[in-house]
Amino acid sequence: MEQRAVIKFNAKLGKSASETFRSMQQFYGSQCLGRTAVFDCHKRFLEGRETLEDDKKSGRSILVRTPEMKKYMILLQTIAMHL
After folding, report:
1. Class of residue 13 by CB neighbours under 10 A (exposed 0-12, middle 13-18, buried 19+)
2. Residue 54: helix, strand or coil by DSSP?
3. pLDDT for res 61
4. pLDDT tens across 7-66, in order?
5. What's the alpha-carbon Rg for the chain, to the nearest Å?
6. Rounded alpha-carbon distances, angstroms, from residue 59 to 34, 40, 70
7. How many CB atoms lie within 10 A of CB 42?
8. Comparing C-alpha atoms, which of 59, 55, 75 is closest to residue 67?
9. Distance in angstroms (rounded) separating the CA atoms of residues 14 and 75
10. pLDDT attached to residue 65
């Protein structure tokens, strides 16, 4: 989220996505977001996005139901009751 704030700040200042990415690479080094992520995020802020939060994921959440998982959950519940 910190890097998104930097991108938003630079976009509001009128800096290009290229300028933003270069300065972020210098500051964050190997921890910098990838070029595509910076450019996409920069574009969204220029288009009016305000929030730094992740977008909600569409679709159903993933739920895993296997016999092994059921046994594991029952075991965890049993252990928790005895604590």
Report:
1. exposed
2. coil
3. 66
4. 999 999 999 999 999 999 999 999 999 999 999 999 999 999 888 887 776 776 666 678
5. 21
6. 26, 22, 24
7. 22
8. 75
9. 57
10. 74
